[in-house]
Amino acid sequence: MVYSLTYRRPPYVDSSRESLSSEKTGRSVGESTLAESQDTAVNFGIPEALSFDRIIDGGTCPPCTTRDFMNYLIYIEHAAENLQFFLWHKDYTKRFHLLPANEQKLAPVWTVEQAEAQILAMKDNPNPMKTISPEVAAVFKGSDFAAPKITVVETGKGNPFNTPPITPNTGERESIAPSEYPWSDSGSTVRSGFKASHDKKAAEAFDSADVKLQPFTIQPFRKEISRIIATYVADGAPRQLNLSSKERAALLHALAVTTHPTAFRQVIHTVEWALRHQAHQNFIRWTICNGNRPRVIFARGLGIAGIVGGILAAVLIVLSNAGRGWRVLSAIGFGIGIATLVAAWKGMCVVLHGMHHRHLRPWELFAEGDDASSAMEMKKDSFDSLGSSNSYEDQPWVAKYEKRNLIRKVFDREVWIQEPALRQIQDTIFLQAVLGSLVLTAICVGIFVALPKGRYY
Hints:
Number of helices: 20
Strand order of the largest sheet: 1-2
Order of helices and strands: HHHHHHHEHEHHHHHHHEHHHHEH
Oligomer: single chain
Mean pLDDT: 80
Largest sheet: 2 strands, parallel
Low-confidence stretches: 25-35, 128-132, 148-196
Helix content: 40-55%
């Protein structure tokens, strides 16, 4: 079974903040989720079986799982922080609503009216106070460059973030929380072994936005929010989100008041929109390709060689004394060459498709043997909401794959494609290539058949 013959694979979407901001203005995530899923299936060449929600909810098979989506964002698009933050917020919202009602009331809802009022206030004060370190303040002290009022981040005992009191009646809820996501230590998306000075970074982030944070330690998950700020929001954070200065400042103002999940409303909307309309679309387009780049280039070369072979065969027969019927033999070269070239131009190798196989990705090739433990750590870190940066240049497989010779890359190991919807898309593209090849082959052969004999030999 195939899709419509007019099917087109999803086009590549550039990660432009301007386009995303203009489209998402005035819409809430909750209101647009269903419409977005239907729009994706109809307009972007992505079937409902491979929708964003289906992938996130674990309703797909390799190579279209959440794990594969995460690997694509880490190694190909280099924007895994969006998905990591989205998964954390989804889990955080679930855990927050499982709290007793009396604890939930300690963190009031951040309403839309409050958010709009904060945006208007920021427009009136477009240049918020910036944090200046004590060293810089000492250098400019007494000079013409000294600001009349300088905010200095203190790291001593006066900073309430250094020694925060334990939230009453919460136990270890902030460090050990149930989660549905894999690879989380101690059943949590927040690792208790997070060693970075997140309290100091969170304090600096609040100060840079000119936010006077009070030690609301009685609010649930306040420590976790500080870690999230240090990991995703603060300048220079290991997984800093691509937010505008206004979005970052508005988020910090909201988090200074409450730890309710609605404080992230605007940011999570921006992140989810980017995931749905840019990252997800590009991921499906990339997944349709069943071969690595050397194999696809090799397939394109074979297609061109087949077309050239068909042309040479037709020319030689035309110049001879052979009958016109013999010229039809050139259709073999034309047919195979054109079909192979069209499929390869869409990232598919017809040989791999005949077996419904795909090449293993470079990071999958070395996930066995001596590198099994490092690969396991890599998978854990990618789904750890408070892990380190998403840099992978120092991972063992990078150097090993670079040393791999070109022939081995062309004929790398293969694995069967388990996702039925993906196989169906590839079947459709293959059928389109074959039908297009038949039409073009008929035209080419017809032209050569109509030519008179050369009678040169």
